[in-house]
Amino acid sequence: MGVMLRAALLLSSLLQCSAFLELSGSSEIKGVWKDSVTLPCAYVPVEDLVQQTLTWTVVHEKGSGTILRRDSSGDHIFLSEYRDRVSIPKDVPGNVSLLILSLEISDRGTYTCQVTWRDSNNSLIAKEISTNLEVVKVAATKPIIRAAEPGLTLPIGASTSLTCEASGSPPISYRWFRSSPGSTAKLLSSGAVLAWSSLRPSDSGSYFCEAENRAGAGAVQRSDAVQLTVTELPIAATTSESGVGYPGKNETIHDSQRTGLSLYLVILIAVVCGAVVFLVISLIMCIRKPKNAQVYDVKFHNSRAAASSNIGHYEEPIPPTENNYVMELGENKTSEEVNKNVYDCVATSQESEYEAGDTS
């Protein structure tokens, strides 16, 4: 009775654990020839269950076998045609999906993911899920052209590039052309990117690209043409929303506004500097004028003192024109102004001497 009870408890525990462990994936996957594909297989980790083994097997036209096995010693690949082409994530618990690189037509078939866990009672639980892989050849699609920032309108000397993008089975080959009205398009280069290191006015024109692959049976896909414009002066350049460049993104470069602002600053600085120089010169002139006037007054008063030093002695008045006064002209006085001042001062001095003679 006790043995049966323990067996029932063990069975119940296994059923509960099994109910929590479910592998998720996809029943059918379509891969592109020469491209890569991921066959999904995942589960939610349970605390009391430890993964013991993981096995990926395949059944296809060449036969069947184990592709990869993971255990405590690591990953082991058994089929040579998958060597260096398959891998499983190691850093994501519960994710045991199979990545296959460089798909071949012979890779189509049924792939099975099988995982085994060990529970706390040392019992093993196994789950598996199968996925049917179909490998198809996809012709190259119509390419699109993406312009580097800031867009298709650029100044002389700028650098830019155009990128041709198409989807389909790799490898995809690209060619760049420049079209001219009324003439055959000119082949420029082969490759996905067409670049300029320093634009010239002659680079302005209409450009398009072509894409093709082996899956398209020689069918060539051509993109829509784009117009590249090279301007004489820097202008505000924006990206369009027509599918060329960066759809939904609009950027403006205000080069001309920054140049105008710099010019205004230079003019303002020049005006301020001129005002400062004018103010300094004015202050120097104001300071020098009183100093010159003072020198003149001192010399003049000394002359008057010399003229009036002989008190009580009357001399015949000398006409103003015969007086010989020696004075230094100020820097800002003309000779006419000095002669007039001398005449006035001498006349006043003579009148004072006449008055002094009468009183004596």
Q: What is the ordering of alpha helices and beta strands?
A: HEEEEEEEEEEEEEEEEEEEEHH
Low-pLDDT ranges = 7-16, 237-257, 291-316, 320-340, 345-360
Overall structural class, as computed from helix and strand content, comes to alpha+beta
DSSP helix fraction: 25-40%
The main β sheet shows up as:
6 strands, mixed
Provide structural commentary.
It is a single chain. The chain is of the alpha+beta class and 360 residues long. The chain has helices at 2-20, 255-307, 335-359; strands spanning 24-25, 28-32, 37-39, 41-42, 50-60, 63-71, 74-77, 86-87, 98-100, 109-118, 124-136, 144-147, 153-155, 160-165, 172-179, 186-190, 193-196, 205-213, 221-222, 226-231. The strands form five sheets. Strands 2-11-10-5-6-7 form a six-stranded mixed β-sheet. Strand 6 (63-71) and strand 7 form a beta hairpin. It is elongated, with a radius of gyration of 52 Å.
In brief:
The chain is an alpha+beta fold. The chain is 27% helix and 31% strand.
What is the topological layout?
Blueprint: H1 2-20, E1 24-25, E2 28-32, E3 37-39, E4 41-42, E5 50-60, E6 63-71, E7 74-77, E8 86-87, E9 98-100, E10 109-118, E11 124-136, E12 144-147, E13 153-155, E14 160-165, E15 172-179, E16 186-190, E17 193-196, E18 205-213, E19 221-222, E20 226-231, H2 255-307, H3 335-359
Parallel strand pairs: 2-11, 13-20
Antiparallel strand pairs: 1-4, 3-9, 5-6, 5-10, 6-7, 8-9, 10-11, 12-14, 14-17, 15-16, 15-18, 18-19, 18-20
